[in-house]
Amino acid sequence: MVLDAIARGIKKIDSISKVTKLSKDEVELIVNDLLAQKILIKNEKKGFFGNKKIELDIADIGVKILNTKKQELSEKSDRLQQLYETGDKSQVQGFMDSNRMWIPMMLFSGIMNMVFFASMMSFMGMAMNPAESAVTEGQVDQTTAGAEDSGGATDNSDIGTGEMDTTSGGDAGFEGFDGGGFGDF
Asked: What are all long-range contacts of 69-76, with beta carbons under 8 Å and residues at least 24 apart?
């Protein structure tokens, strides 16, 4: 995920940490490993007040590795979707057990759809691990994943104008409420 973030143009460790939802220490360890393997290039620039700014770029070998891994994960995601569509929980469970560590990368890279993932997890009755939950945060409501929308199915037959309280003069319960319009000052 760190390599993918750098490939997308995120060049600073703090920014990478925010985007990947990994701790700054974890990102620094990963970056140091990638630098040692010559997958990343470290550029030191002088800031406006003489401060050193460190920016990271991905090396050519890093681009090749990332693209190869993304292709492999795309094929795995397609296979998982096929297994899910057959409805065979045991095959989906076996696939998830053997490939669970790559799910956050699939979600972060957009290889796997987050709604599909949440739906599949609900189908399997499985809980998301912290890394998966962090990547899907704000994208999927885990409490209703896989639930059907029943918004139009409510019974409104008991609502009528004859039962409405019209004694408040149209304020609908907002007596004394000042909306703060422009004519108030």
From this structure: 69/105, 70/4, 70/109, 70/111, 73/102, 73/105, 73/106, 73/109, 73/111, 74/111, 76/102, 76/106
18: Cα separation from own chain's centroid: 12
- Which three-class secondary structure state does DSSP give residue 44? strand
Q: What angle do CA 73, 8, 111 make, to 5 degrees?
A: 25
Are the C-beta atoms of 67 and 59 separated by less than 8 Å?
no
Closest to 115 (Cα-Cα) out of 135, 130, 129? 135
Domain boundaries, the chain: 2-58, 69-136
End-to-end CA distance of the chain: 54
- Residue 87: C-alpha distances to residues 38, 48, 90, 112 (Å): 44, 59, 9, 18
pLDDT the model gives residue 153: 43
Q: Considering the domain delimited by 2-58, tell me its CATH architecture.
A: Orthogonal Bundle (1.10)
Percent with pLDDT over 70 in the chain: 72
| H or E segment and range at residue 83 | helix 60-86
Reference 76, options 50, 96, 51; nearest CA is: 96
What is the number of H-type helices and E-type strands within the chain?
8, 2
Mean pLDDT of the chain: 76
> Residue 145 and residue 184: Cα distance in Å, rounded?
46
